[in-house]
Amino acid sequence: MAGDVTYAVSDGQFLKVGRASDPEKRLASLQTGNPRRLILLGSVPRNVERQIHECMGLRGVARHVGEWFDDNAIARDLLARNGILNAAWRVENLQWRDGILCLPGGV
User: Fold this and answer.
1) How many angstroms separate the Cα of 9 from the Cα of each of 57, 68?
2) Every domain of the chain and the residues it spans
3) N or C end of the chain, less CB within 10 A?
């Protein structure tokens, strides 16, 4: 069924959890309206978007406009536990700089 892929994208400070039939195409669409470089953190071929949003709220991850949340260790852990987060993007592989999570490649 179209739209049953749950994905996560990040700019290093905020992340978005959403659904799309084609996460790469959705990333391109989101990038058009975002001045910061977005990275596709990963996706999973099932609809767990609402559950992840609810879990982030229960775990105290700050939610911003729409489906954007703080990108922090708690959020990354929830994504990893749901199979969405690719290993390279796990928080232990990244660094914090001035309160912003720095993605590989200096983003």
Assistant:
1) 18, 9
2) 5-92
3) N
Question: Judging by beta carbons within 10 Å of its beta carbon (0-12, 13-18, 19+), is residue 86 exposed, middle or buried?
Answer: middle
Residues 10, 107: Cα–Cα separation, whole Å: 10
Task: Tell me the CB-side half-sphere exposure of residue 64, using CA atoms within 13 A.
Answer: 9
Q: Do residues 11 and 37 touch, judged by C-beta distance below 8 A?
A: yes
| Cβ–Cβ < 8 Å for 8, 85 | yes
Q: Which two tokens stand for residue 8?
A: 């996560």
pLDDT tens, residue by residue, 34-82: 899 999 999 999 999 999 999 999 999 999 998 899 999 899 888 988 8
- How remote is the C-alpha of 34 from its chain's centroid? 14
Is residue 8 over pLDDT 90?
A: yes
Cα–Cα distance measured from residue 53 to residue 36, given in angstroms and rounded to the nearest whole number: 23
Query: Phi, psi (5° rounding) for residue 6?
Result: -95, 130
